[in-house]
Write a structure and sequence with these properties.
By secondary structure, the chain is of the alpha/beta class. The protein is built from nine helices and 14 strands. The chain binds adenosine-5'-triphosphate (ATP).
């Protein structure tokens, strides 16, 4: 079953483009990544799914119900916005109890489990929390009712690396229990760790939807090396190397494919330093996808 189904969705804010002709489906139990640069249309898509804004044309459904016509579907969604704003005078626990009061179940136990998992002191006043701790309040608030669909919009901004790990473990556990996750981000590595499939959005349009396993096999890595002597291009004359740039004792290039033959060749160099980086989004857009449309 498709938990999310978006068909030919277009949203204009007055005359300015939000998203154009977006098509997406997210199946039950998936962790689906939604990735794109600033202004691409991620939040617009999410706000439409939550029924906070209405499509100019096309449709969006969650659990088979129209997002525009059925505001009650919000109760089945756990939403973590990219930025959280609260009444500063409240205590964390009071805010969380207030949020829980919108659901027809007792969320007390889950509130404390989540707060413990995220090292959040629920007895503090919100005013006294750091940005990262406020973000944790948002995480607990989004998950306390054990939603069947979790929508995350840039969820890790403001969390330190340890908390990011804890957060991802929480989301993975919710997914294991059956929750479907829609995960919007502009950080590819974050999405790569978690997701089964990913859609790329740029300038309001989906330019590609890809299984994560295919993406990892097919994407270029950026390799930089510095040798103790001059480097010649013969070391890099092999399939999978492109955009080779050499200067003195250094070389930089993109590589796709089996790394073993490359490493064997490079082992002949007297290397001072080497780095292998995952490509950033722009590189993936530029080198792997261009501007073609393709979906799986
Ligand atoms: N309320 C609004 N009024 C007018 N234009 C808007 C509004 N909200 C978004 N837009 C425009 O819609 C486009 C998509 O914006 P959106 O916020 O959905 O992108 P995003 O991918 O979430 O970006 P970011 O990563 O920066 O949050 C942008 O061109 C933006 O300027």
């Amino acid at each position: 079953m498709n938990v999310i189904e978006i068909k030919n969705l277009t949203k204009y804010y007055g005359r300015s483009r939000g998203i154009t002709d977006v098509n997406l489906r997210v199946e039950q139990g998936e962790i689906f990544g939604f990735i794109g640069p600033n202004g691409a249309g991620k939040s617009t898509t999410i706000r439409t799914l939550l029924g906070l804004i209405y499509p100019t044309s096309g449709s969006a459904t969650v659990f088979g119900k129209s997002c525009a016509a059925c505001p009650e579907i919000k109760k089945e969604i756990g939403y973590l916005p990219s930025e959280v704003f609260y009444y500063d005078n409240m205590r964390v626990i009071d805010l969380l109890r207030y949020s829980a009061s919108f659901y027809k179940k007792d969320c007390t136990k889950r509130i404390h489990e989540l707060a413990d998992a995220m090292n959040l002191d629920v007895h503090k006043k919100i005013d006294d929390l750091s940005f990262g701790n406020k973000k944790k309040v948002g995480i607990v608030q989004g998950l306390l009712h054990e939603p069947e669909l979790i929508i995350l919009d840039e969820p890790t901004s403001g969390l330190d690396p340890l908390m990011q790990q804890k957060f991802f473990a929480l989301i993975a556990a919710e997914n294991q229990k059956g929750a479907t996750v829609f995960f919007s981000s502009h950080i590819l590595s974050e999405v790569q760790k978690m997701c089964n499939r990913v859609a790329f959005i740029k300038d309001g349009r989906i330019i590609r939807t890809e299984k994560m396993s295919d993406l990892q096999e097919n994407s270029y890595k950026r390799i930089h090396l510095e040798a103790n002597g001059p480097v010649t291009s013969s070391y890099f004359a092999m399939d999978g190397v492109r955009d080779l740039k050499m200067e003195g004792n250094t070389a930089g290039f993109l590589f796709k494919g089996n790394v073993n033959p490359l490493m064997q060749k490079l082992a002949a160099l007297d290397l001072r330093n080497v780095s292998i980086e995952e490509p950033d989004l722009e590189e993936i857009f530029l080198h792997d996808y261009g501007r073609e449309d393709r979906t799986v």
